[in-house]
Amino acid sequence: MKARVEVMLRQGVLDPQGEAVRHALAALGFDGVENVRQGKLIELELAESDPARAEAQVREMCEKLLANTVIESYRVEIV
Amino acid sequence: MHAGVIVFPGSNCDRDLAVAFEAAGAKVSMIWHKETELPAGLDIIGVPGGFSYGDYLRCGAIAAQSPVCREMVRFAGRGGHVLGICNGFQVLTETGLLPGALMRNAGLKFVCRTVELRVETASSPFTRGYDEGQVVRFPVAHHDGNYTAQAAELERLEGEGRVAFRYLDNPNGSANDIAGIFSENRRVLGLMPHPERAIDPLQGGTDGQAMFAALAEVLEPA
To answer: With left for phi above 0 and alpha for psi between -120 and 50, is residue B210 left, alpha or beta?
Structure first.
């Protein structure tokens, strides 16, 4: 079973990298990009075959390591 | 004073930190990250600067899960002293020994220069050798030193006088110009600037000496 974890800076936390990308896009002539936020995508291959248990495991991994919940939020997708 | 300096793969200020402790009269043990037990009789643990585990995932995140860090958290829980510098500060926030997190510098650039800091309080084992309000010069060298914490946490740090050092000219966008903070019991200090790189005139300054001398005074058995 595969899981996909998306880690993003929490809403309200300034994302300086996203801002830099937005400026670079504007410099390339891409007008109208109002906001850019940059995050991480983590793919996991799991031995677990039960989707509910897999999701619970991955959420625990996020809380303990994959995301820093002081500044980041995460989304888990079982695929 | 018996100081232990943790060495992770990618640490690069471990020797500088050991030299700074030794110059203050300490016996120093280097502790490899895979150790599951701390050397006997440690008074303080130093978590050095560098790029532990290549800064993979997040700065300090993998180091915080290493066997030796679990022991360090227990050591701090027993009232032990811990000094985390630069990457060491990032490790301490990732272990939860200190609140908040260190994000990418607001200017996105790696900042490497000497900065001026105001000593916010002299009432700690780390800062008792300085005067409150004194300005000291320590080098900084980091890409992720932009301290942030939730508003309530920042208010609490400020209210409890747990900001140790503040930048006079903020190099990284850090909230409230914070350069270093204490734990609740003031025995854990994390800071981005490098006091261990300011202990010898050859390094361009000696303002860091007072921190190690003060620790030696507090931690030297009478």
So the answer is: alpha
**Options 1.10.540.10, 3.30.460.20, 3.40.50.880, 3.40.50.1460; CATH of B2-219:** 3.40.50.880
Report the residue from B58, B104, B105 with minimal CB separation from A68.
B58
Are B108 and A13 a contacting pair at CB < 8 A?
no
What would the pLDDT profile of B143-195 be if each residue is shown by its tens digit?
999 999 999 999 999 999 999 999 999 999 999 999 999 999 999 999 999 99
| Mode of pairing for the β-strands spanning B44-47 and B2-7 | parallel
Q: Please tell me which of the candidates B101, B106, B150 has its beta carbon nearest to residue A16.
A: B106
Flag whether the ipTM exceeds 0.90.
no
Q: Over the stretch B81-127, which tens digit does the pLDDT of each residue have?
A: 999 999 999 999 999 999 999 999 999 899 999 999 999 999 999 99
What is the reported pTM? 0.94
Query: Is B73 part of the contact surface with chain A (CB cutoff 8 Å)?
Result: no
Residue type at A18 in one-letter notation: G
Residues B162 and B186: beta-carbon distance below 8 Å? yes
